[in-house]
Amino acid sequence: MPEPNDQRLAKDPRAGCAEACAELVRGHYEKVYRFLLHLTRDVHAAEDLTQETFAAAWAKLATFQGRAALGTWLHRIAYTKFIDARRAEGRAAIVRESLLETPVSPADPIETMMADEEAQRLYQLLYSLDVSERTVLVLHYLQGLSYREMASVLEESSGTLKWRTSEAIHRLRVLLNDEVPDHAT
Amino acid sequence: MPPERSEKPGPESLEARLRRLPPPPVPADLEARLLAAIPTLVPFPVEKFRASASGGALAPRVLPALTQPGSPGRWVRWIGGVSALAAACLLIVLAWPKSDGQKSKPDPQKNHLAAAGSTDPVSPQSPQDTPWLQARRAPDDLKLAPFTWPIEETRPMTVASSIPGDLLD
Question: What is the C-alpha end-to-end distance of chain B, expressed in Å?
Answer without folding.
Answer: 110
